[in-house]
Design goal:
Pfam families: LprI
Number of helices: 4
CATH class: Mainly Alpha
InterPro entries: LprI-like_N
Largest sheet: none
Strand content: under 5%
Number of strands: 0
Helix content: over 70%
Order of helices and strands: HHHH
Structural class: mainly alpha
Length: 138
C-alpha cells in the first residue's frame, strides 16, 4: 500500500513538472511536427504570432481612427469608439467560435490544437480587416 501511495505521489510530481507551454520546447520543428504534443505546440505558436500582428495592427488602426475623430466634424465623430466596441465583440466571437470548433475533438488531445488553429486563422483574418480600415478612402 505504501508503494502505491509513493508511486502515485511520484506521478503527481511528474505531472506538475511537465512543461505546460511551448516556451519549454525550442527544439520542436514545426515544419515537421510528428506527434500531437508538437502539433499543438506549433498551432499555439501560430496563434501567438498572429496575435502579436493583430495587436500591432489594432494599435495602428486605433491611432488612425482617433486622429480621424480629432479632425472630424463633431456630428461624425465616433470612429475610435466604434472600433473598440467592434474589437471587443470580435474577441468574444473568436473565443466562442474556436471553443465551439474544438468540440470536434472534445476531451481529446487534439482539441487544443484545433482551438489554437482556429484562433490563429480568425486572428489573421481580423488583422487584414483592420488593415483595410487604415487604407485611404475608408
Amino acid at each position: 500500500m505504501k508503494s502505491l501511495a509513493l508511486l502515485a505521489a511520484c506521478g503527481c510530481v511528474l505531472l506538475i513538472d511537465a512543461p505546460v507551454s511551448g516556451e519549454d520546447r525550442p527544439d520542436v520543428d514545426c515544419d515537421n511536427a510528428q506527434v500531437q504534443m508538437e502539433m499543438t505546440y506549433c498551432a499555439e505558436q501560430d496563434f501567438i504570432a498572429a496575435d502579436k500582428l493583430l495587436n500591432t495592427q489594432y494599435k495602428k488602426t486605433r491611432d488612425l481612427t482617433r486622429a480621424r475623430d480629432e479632425d472630424a466634424d463633431p456630428s461624425t465623430k465616433g470612429a475610435e469608439k466604434a472600433l473598440v466596441a467592434a474589437q471587443r465583440a470580435w474577441v468574444t466571437y473568436r473565443d466562442a467560435q474556436c471553443a465551439s470548433y474544438g468540440f470536434q475533438a472534445r476531451g481529446g488531445s487534439m482539441e487544443p490544437m484545433l482551438i489554437y488553429g482556429c484562433q490563429a486563422d480568425l486572428t489573421a483574418k481580423r488583422t487584414e480587416e483592420l488593415k483595410e480600415l487604415t487604407e485611404e478612402g475608408n
